[in-house]
Design a protein that fits this description.
- The chain contains 22 helices and two strands.
- By secondary structure, it is mostly helical.
Length: 464
């Protein structure tokens, strides 16, 4: 099945623009009548409410506070900071739409999207269906400008991708998608689409399962077109880790790539972050990232990797300083802000910890974060029962493939329930949660390290 990223779409359309409202309504009814949505009344209700209010040009009704009351039947005292139901079901809805367009809706002429960070749907025309359904339509560029245009698209896509933000990944995907449309045999364009999908998964901007599967398809295509593409081998090694927990296989992939080009920055960075750091070789990982940072202009991606290795080494003050620099380069880099908040917590700077982690811009990528912060507060103030209740509340809202099970395990560990923490870490392993790759190195698990069950999970991951 071809990836969604290989279809050609118009730019975002507003209701009343080139796409008639009647056509959008018909597309909505087709989606809701299909097998993917038929058995999900709540998500169908959510999608219908969002589309109908967008067509009425009524964005005020698509705020989280209003959606909680109108779609989810919460009362007037609904507080989206402590009740993540809207954010959780928005993730479910995005995943369900992706599933629909990868199956029964692959040839639909109109696509309805709900981008990360927004509850206002966007409507796009899939012009590739004007020919053979699901087949990419090539754009013919003038010979004298074609190569230059492709290079420009690749450069702009990389600039957006290097911001390490959901918004940058979405915009970058647009540039890479256009490059693939213009030149289907360009390996770098396919690799760019793979990189944006991987970024969306790691940033929790999209269902990791769907995004990483799509990334693997594009990496395979890129390496088929250019077997010596070292950045493609780097991406392949990363996917071996985050999808399969195959650390040994990833190391072999990185070594093969470095034989092709020993100074390949992308491979060395991938080797440091997705092999050395997870297996516990933190000093080696930090040295490699430091050398790369000295030879490259500072970017959010390079800075985040440097800050994350500092955090794993328990150099919390250094991690805070580095993540501050990252946020100046890319204010939308949610992982940098998240890590900075955790570092303040480790240092006992709880007011700053709360200020950072309860910011509105972290609520979308980390829907359960407010509950985790409140649980930490209760635990510190001696309200252990209340802290445990909040952890159980997180567990009750969990949705496989949509939310991060690792955070649930971390929270149970934080409130002192070792059995539940280990249960959720085992669950995270079974579900292939990508954040589990740092289990051996992350300070969050220091209190569990001597437990036999914890070591059993470490061994299953291949991190002995």
């Amino acid at each position: 099945m071809p990836s969604l990223a290989t279809h050609e779409f118009d730019d975002k359309q507003k209701p009343g623009g080139p796409i008639p409202a009647q056509a959008i309504t018909a597309a909505l009814e087709k989606i809701l009548a299909g097998e993917v949505f038929r058995k999900s009344r709540q998500l169908s209700r959510f999608l219908r409410f969002a589309v109908e209010n967008a067509l009425l040009d009524n964005p005020g009704s698509l705020k989280e506070s209003v959606l909680g009351m109108e779609v989810f039947d919460r009362g007037p005292d609904f507080d989206p900071r402590t009740d993540p139901i809207v954010r959780i079901d928005a993730r479910r809805l995005r995943a369900r739409l992706s599933q629909y367009y990868e199956s029964e809706g692959i040839a639909d002429s109109i696509r309805i999207e709900l981008e990360p960070g927004s509850y206002v749907p966007r409507f796009r025309s899939n012009r590739s269906t004007a020919g053979r359904p699901g087949v990419l339509r090539r754009i013919v560029l003038p010979k004298e400008t074609g190569a230059r245009t492709i290079l420009g698209l690749l450069r702009k896509g990389k600039q957006q991708l290097d911001l390490l933000s959901v918004e940058g990944s979405v915009k970058g995907a647009g540039f890479f998608r256009n490059a693939v449309i213009a030149a289907p045999d360009n390996a770098l364009a396919h690799l760019g689409l793979a990189a944006t999908s991987m970024s969306m998964a790691l940033l929790m901007g999209e269902s990791p399962r769907l995004a990483l599967s799509r990334a693997r398809t594009h990496v395979a295509r890129a390496l088929e077109l250019d077997p010596a593409l070292v950045d493609g081998h780097a991406a392949s090694g990363i996917l071996q880790v985050v999808m399969d927990y195959d650390f040994r296989g990833a190391k072999e992939t990185f070594v093969r790539a470095l034989r092709i080009k020993p100074d390949a920055a992308a491979v060395r960075r991938a080797h440091a972050m997705f092999y050395l750091a997870p297996v516990g070789l933190l000093a080696e990982a930090a040295d490699e990232i430091r050398r790369l940072a000295e030879s490259e202009p500072f970017s959010a991606r390079v800075g985040y990797h440097a800050g994350w290795t500092e955090y794993l080494q328990r150099n919390y003050r250094g991690a805070i300083a580095t993540m501050e620099k990252v946020r100046k380069v890319s204010p939308g880099c949610a992982p940098a802000k998240f890590t900075q908040g955790l570092a303040h917590e480790r240092l006992g700077e709880y007011e700053r910890f709360r200020e950072i982690l309860l910011a509105d811009d972290l609520r979308v990528p980390y829907p359960l974060l407010a509950l985790r912060v409140d649980a930490a507060d209760c635990r510190r103030s001696g309200r252990g029962g209340e802290a445990l209740s909040l952890a159980h509340r997180m567990a009750s809202t969990y949705a496989p493939g949509v939310l991060d099970p690792v955070m649930v395990g971390e929270t149970f560990a934080l409130v002192g329930d070792r059995d539940r923490a280990l249960e959720w870490l085992a669950k995270s392993y079974e579900e292939g949660a990508n954040r589990l790759i740092y289990l051996k190195s992350d300070p969050a698990y220091d209190d569990l390290r001597e437990d036999a069950q914890f070591q059993e999970i470490v061994e299953k991951l291949g991190l002995r």
